[in-house]
Design goal:
The complex is a heterodimer of chains A (about 110) and B (about 110).
Chain A (H helix, E strand, L loop, with lengths): L2 E3 L4 E5 L4 E3 L2 E3 L5 E8 L6 E7 L7 E2 L2 E6 L4 E6 L8 E9 L6 E2 L3 E6 L1
Parallel strand pairs in A: 2-12
Antiparallel strand pairs in A: 1-4, 3-9, 5-6, 5-10, 7-8, 8-9, 10-11, 10-12
Chain B lengths: L4 E3 L2 E4 L5 E6 L6 E8 L3 E9 L2 E4 L8 E7 L2 E6 L8 E8 L7 E2 L3 E5 L1
Parallel strand pairs in B: 2-11
Antiparallel strand pairs in B: 1-3, 3-8, 4-5, 4-9, 5-6, 7-8, 9-10, 9-11
The chains are: A mainly beta (about 110), B mainly beta (about 110).
């Protein structure tokens, strides 16, 4: 079974600075998808970014980018120019190509300090 | 486009009562998922449907839980009888097809007294 590990329960960053959230996963599959979701206090689950394992290029969405290291099974999220609205729980998720399910990590709570 | 719509947003009821949670997926999405989120266990997949058919319900914790999808635009998750340990946030999500991002509703916060 796949597992997703987020080793940082909590992180903090100064406004306008850059922060990196870590995620590792365990799988025997070669084709899969990885996601980062954001859950603000309003409890919505918002998709931040998506990465296909067959793509070597790291995904980027505005201030959000990933560092995907397939061999190391690592998928970190970098948030640049952090804003107060970035404060939230961030969940890393794995989806196998042959499966319709997502496996979520336990989450990292990000605080942004003004 | 409207997102995934869940109702109610909050539900407080007494132990033993029947609880019904509702979900309207995004139009055209073939997959619908029900999740439960707790502090202890995080996000757990309970069941998912493809084209209204339940595909995998191995995450449903007990026979007290049941889910239906009578048509492409509506699904329910029912707990009968409810217990205090069922207190959690329940999310519904939908996706266009496998491996596409799942789009979540705002969740239902369920409190069983």
């Amino acid at each position: 079974a796949q597992t997703v590990t987020q080793s940082q329960p909590e992180m903090s960053v100064q406004e306008a600075e850059t922060v990196t959230l870590s995620c590792t996963y365990d799988t025997s599959e070669s084709d899969y998808y990885l996601f980062w979701y954001k859950q603000p206090p309003s409890r919505q689950m918002i998709l931040v970014i998506r990465q296909e394992a067959y793509k070597q290029q790291n995904a980027t969405e505005n201030r959000f980018s990933v560092n995907f290291q397939k061999a190391a099974k690592s998928f970190s999220l970098k948030i640049s120019d952090s804003q107060l609205g970035d404060a939230a729980m961030y969940f890393c998720a794995y989806g196998g190509a042959g499966s319709y399910q997502l496996t979520f990590g336990k989450g990292t709570k990000l605080s942004v300090i003004p | 486009d409207a997102g995934v719509i869940q109702s109610p947003r909050h539900e407080v009821t007494e132990m033993g009562q029947e609880v019904t949670l509702r979900c309207k997926p995004i139009s055209g999405h073939d997959y619908l998922f029900w999740y439960r989120q707790t502090m202890m266990r995080g996000l757990e997949l309970l069941i998912y449907f493809n084209n209204n058919v339940p595909i995998d319900d191995s995450g449903m914790p007990e026979d007290r839980f049941s889910a239906k999808m009578p048509n492409a635009s509506f699904s329910t998750l029912k707990i009968q009888p409810s217990e205090p340990r069922d207190s959690a946030v329940y999310f519904c999500a939908s996706s266009l097809y496998s491996n596409q991002p799942q789009h979540f509703g705002d969740g239902t916060r369920l409190s069983i007294l």
